[in-house]
Every structure is written in C-alpha cells, then in structure tokens.
Write a sequence for this structure.
C-alpha cells in the first residue's frame, strides 16, 4: 500500500507553501485549527491568521470583507459547519457579492467516524453546487489536494474545497496536474505516462464506467482491477472538479460505456451523482447507478465500519457492476 | 477638509439640504417602483447625508474602487433607496438610474448589489451580515497599514440577529478602531415595535459590554451627528458605535412612527402630500 495521508494534512502544508509565496493570503478558522490543519499556517504567520472562535457565520462574513479589501482568504472549519450552518452567509456575503474567498472544509462525509451524524456533512456538495459562481472541488488524495488548493488560490472567485479527516492512500503515482473543470480517466491506466484521457480517443467500449470523487476514487480503481480479472471491462474517471463538472469528458464516457456508476462519500441527492445524471440525461442518456449515502443521516462508528455499512467499498462497487452487466 | 466656524454652519446647511433631496428621492423612487422600504430609508437620511456630504467619507466618485477610500457598508440593505440617492447625488452614477429602482434590468436592485452599482461596497439585504464584512475590511486595513475607516449602518431590529454580536465580539477583540458602526435606532420593525417583537435595548449597554466605545445622539440633528462622527474617529484601541435615535419615516408626517410604512410605498396622492411636506422644509 502506498503512503497514507489525510487530505486535510496536505491542505495545511499547502497553505503554508502558499502563505510563503503570497503575502495576501490570510487564513480563518473557528476554533478547529488543529483539526483542519490551519494551525500549521497560524504558527508561521500569526499576524495573517484569524481564529474567530466558535462563530462560523462571522468567520464567513469576515472572510468576505477581507476578500473585498484585497486579501485572499482561506476559511476553514468542519464541512458541516462551513456549508450548512453558514449557508446564508456563504450565499449572500460571498457568492452573491462574488468575493474571492476559498472555503476549505475538513471532516466531510461519514469518515468523520465516531462523532456521528451531527458532524458528518453528507449534503455539503449539494449545497455548494447550487450556488451560482461557486466552484466545488473534492480531491481524492494528498497530492491532488495540494494541486487543488493551488488551483483554488489561482482561480478568481469563490471555491469550496472538500477535505477528509481519515488517512487515505495515494491514488496518483505522481503529480498529475490539476485543472478546475477537468476530469481524468485513471483506468484503463494510461499507456503513456500522464496522458490520462487518451483511452477515449479509440473506439473501445466499456461495460461499466465509474465516475468518482474524493475517497471513493481509490475504491473504484480497486473495483476496476477486480472486475477486469472477471472479464468486465471498466473505466474509472476522477471527477474532483464537481463544479464546474467536465461535461465533455462525461459525454465522451457516456458514449463509450454501457452503464455508468457514480461513487461519492455524500448523499445521492445533489452531489456528483446528480451532476453526472444531469449531463448524461441531457446529452447522451445511458443507464446510471448513483452510489453514496441514501437520503439518510450518518451515525457513529469507526470510519472503516461506516464505509462498509454504507456500501462505500470496492466489494460493493464490484457487486453493483456485476449486476449491471448480467445478461 | 477644515471648516471655520462660518463654513461649518454652511456645511450643516448643505447637509440638511442634501438630506431633504435624498428624502424626496426616496419617496419618489419607491412610489415609482411601487415597492420598497421608505420608512427605514427616511429614518437614516440625515445620517447618510452627513456621511456623504459632510466630508466624512473619503470616497472618489470617479474611482469607486480607490484602495484607500473609506468603506461604507449598508448592513440594513432594505434601506437601499437612501444609499442609491446619496451615491447618485455624489456622482457615482447618473441620477436617471434612480427612476429604474427595482425594475427588470436595472442596476438598482431591491437590495444593493455591489457587482452592479459603483460605490456599493458589498451586497446586503439578508440582515446581520454587514458588520462581519466590515470587520474583515477593517482587518485588511490594519494588515495593509492603511488609514481608511470602515463605517457600517445597522438597524435596531437588525441587532436581533446573533451574527451582529459575533461580529461585535470580534471587532473589539481585534481592537478595530478603524471601524465605526451606526445604529439607526428607529424603534420599529416589520411586525411592530422592536421592544414588543424582541427587545434589543439597551443597545448602548450591550455594545459597551462587548468592549465598544459607545456614543448616543439624535440621528436627525445634523450638527450633533457631525460632532459625534468626529469624536468616533478619535477613539483609539477599540471600535466605536453611534446609537442614533431616529424616527421611522422621518420627514413625511403620515409615515412617521408608523410601522406599516416599513415596506409600503406611497400612492399618487400620498406622494404629492409627501413631496409638499418635504419641499416645505
């Protein structure tokens, strides 16, 4: 197994890297800096770090004001608070005003674990996707997180970056490059290093195409490896840019796939699955199965137990694919 | 700009004249639009006139994004007409725009949109958010060692929003003496008297307890407002708040102190009467 690292750790390190390059970068947190890893930045740049206390709405407003007056703020707390608790502030103070604020939220999804449903954001992607002008990024590993945070900093406009608590394996063997609005086909593995989407240039047809984001990308890849051994041909695309979603890539995938399976650590309502269905239904209808959490709240348990409980495993993905391809 | 005793008197007269013109704009605009919020716009007309026409706000109409400008945040965004009028009369945009308030395609949205209107710093309308944004601007000013000030106008009913107090806590924690809040204390909100709906008084003691320097003033006495603005600018080491006692609907007899004029607009006859009263001032 490759090196294990949580995306939030990569976020903290990248903030520091960015902070050293750009004096306009400021960071805000709401009393969770040791968990979100903004503490790394705070230690080196205390004058550019604002811990607003347990007052998330105010944090979002202050971030908007800082952006208004020329700063590049990254505001962090748990995903459940960064989106749900402060939805109106994100909507009115940031998105409607079009301010250049980056909301980097950790502890998204069920892998929060033992804290239970109150702290497990399962609808944050849906909430953020619905806001005009908001970019939504869900990186799958530490390397990609670094690139996504860099891309967010370079992007003019509000960005929501969804980060996890749990340590996860590296999906990308090396920096693959990251572009907002672009997805990457990771399986079949590229024949030429780095040419991820070249496989779509041929006329291959796939039995099942997985489209995943975040922690589920690695699981979908595992499933694809197993399924190929059983004679089921697979494609796996990483759709870290959930909004804007890579419509061109999704249509290409739909054209060369008998069925699609979307995978996310999020409600099946309003997240990546919904985005994929919207694109395929309008452009090239193909059967789609949306996997995630089914319209319910999470619960306490270890991250691993919860992943099993909610079917976020490569075994479950294999099972779904087998059923889809059965006569 | 320095004012001698004589010019100070003429400045007060000038502000009063502008406040009158702003009030006329407010009733005309909202009557034409057929919707909008005259009551809370009229109550803050003297405050806004003093800020924009008393050399208080350092702003440039031909360079609205001038980095060193003073910022004005209309946190009570429903009072958009008072801001639109002041900005138009300060030359930020053509006065003809005022006739288009709330119409499809108009830059003058029902609540201020900073992307559409030069001089509008941030989009407001969902109450309770302006003070937080102002804290952010004031922090940026401190970080950049700029000497601009950030002014925020809040409603008294708006102070029922919890976020106002989160921001009040932060402003004093960060010792933002470049931040001045004004509470348009008109005592009324949509459903009735603020004290009946959900009492917020004593507002001044609350801010004091949050670490602010508090001033209280008659929000319709321009000379007193100007004095208190100067004093507020001199406060060091903490933010300042000016609780300005006002009358909702001020200047139009049948609107004064009537909650129903929060979000009701005058018909043709009422407009005529209102204009007669305002032009007679």
């Amino acid at each position: 197994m490759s090196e294990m690292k949580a995306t939030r750790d990569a976020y903290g390190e990248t903030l520091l890297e960015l902070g050293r390059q750009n004096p306009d970068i400021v960071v805000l947190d709401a009393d969770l800096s040791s968990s979100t890893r903004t503490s790394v930045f705070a230690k080196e740049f205390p004058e550019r770090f604002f811990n607003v206390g347990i007052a998330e709405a105010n944090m979002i407003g202050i971030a908007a004001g800082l952006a208004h007056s020329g700063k590049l703020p990254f505001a962090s707390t748990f995903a459940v608070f960064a989106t749900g608790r402060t939805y109106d502030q994100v909507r009115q103070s940031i998105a409607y005003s079009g301010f250049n604020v980056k909301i980097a939220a950790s502890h998204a999804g069920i892998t929060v674990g033992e804290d239970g449903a109150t702290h497990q954001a399962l609808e944050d992607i849906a909430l953020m996707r619905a806001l005009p002008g908001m970019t939504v990024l869900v990186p799958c590993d530490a390397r990609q997180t670094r690139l996504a945070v860099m891309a967010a900093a370079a992007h003019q406009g509000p960005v929501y970056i969804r980060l996890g608590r749990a340590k996860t394996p590296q999906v990308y063997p090396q920096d693959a490059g990251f572009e907002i609005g672009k997805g990457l086909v990771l399986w079949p593995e590229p024949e030429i290093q780095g040419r991820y989407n070249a496989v779509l240039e041929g006329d291959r047809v796939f039995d099942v195409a997985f489209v995943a984001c975040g922690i589920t990308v690695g699981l979908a890849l595992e499933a694809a490896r197993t399924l190929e051994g059983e004679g089921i041909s697979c494609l796996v695309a990483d759709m870290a840019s959930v909004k804007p979603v890579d419509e061109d890539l999704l249509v290409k995938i739909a054209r060369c796939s008998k069925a699609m399976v979307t995978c996310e650590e999020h409600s099946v309502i309003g997240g990546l699955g919904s985005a994929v269905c919207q694109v395929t239904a309008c452009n090239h209808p193909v059967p789609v199965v949306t996997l995630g959490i089914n319209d319910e709240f999470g619960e306490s348990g270890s991250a691993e137990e919860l992943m099993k409980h909610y079917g976020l495993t490569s075994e479950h993905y294999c099972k779904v694919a087998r059923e889809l391809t059965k006569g | 700009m320095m004012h001698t005793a004589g010019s100070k008197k003429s400045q007060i007269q000038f502000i009063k004249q502008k406040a009158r013109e702003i009030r006329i704009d407010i009733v005309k605009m909202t009557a034409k639009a057929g919707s909008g919020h005259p009551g809370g716009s009229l109550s803050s007309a003297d405050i806004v006139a003093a800020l924009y026409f008393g050399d208080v706000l350092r702003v440039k109409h031909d360079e609205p994004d001038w980095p060193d400008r003073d910022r004005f945040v209309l946190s009570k965004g429903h009072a958009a007409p008072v801001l639109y009028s002041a900005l138009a009369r300060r030359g930020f945009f053509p006065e003809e725009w005022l006739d288009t308030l709330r119409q499809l395609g108009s830059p003058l949205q029902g609540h201020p949109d900073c992307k559409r209107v030069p001089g509008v710093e941030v989009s407001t309308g969902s109450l309770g958010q302006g003070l937080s944004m102002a804290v952010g601007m004031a922090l940026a000013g401190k970080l950049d060692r700029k000497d601009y000030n950030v002014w925020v106008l809040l409603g008294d009913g708006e102070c029922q929003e919890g976020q106002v107090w989160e921001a009040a806590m932060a402003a004093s924690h960060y010792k933002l003496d470049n931040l001045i809040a004004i509470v348009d204390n008109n005592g009324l909100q949509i459903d009735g008297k603020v004290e009946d709906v959900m009492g917020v008084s004593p507002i001044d003691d609350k801010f004091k307890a949050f670490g602010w320097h508090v001033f209280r003033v008659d929000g319709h006495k321009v000379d007193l407002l100007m004095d208190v603005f100067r004093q507020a600018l001199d406060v060091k080491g903490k933010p300042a708040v000016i609780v300005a006692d006002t009358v909702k609907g001020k200047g139009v007899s049948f609107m004064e102190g009537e909650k129903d004029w929060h979000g009701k607009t005058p018909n043709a006859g009422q407009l005529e009467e209102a204009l007669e009263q305002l032009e007679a001032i």
About this structure: The interface with chain A takes residues 67, 71, 113-115, 121-126, 129, 131-141, 143-144, 162-163, 166-167, 169-170, 174 of chain B (CB under 8 Å). The first helix of chain B runs from residue 5 to 33.
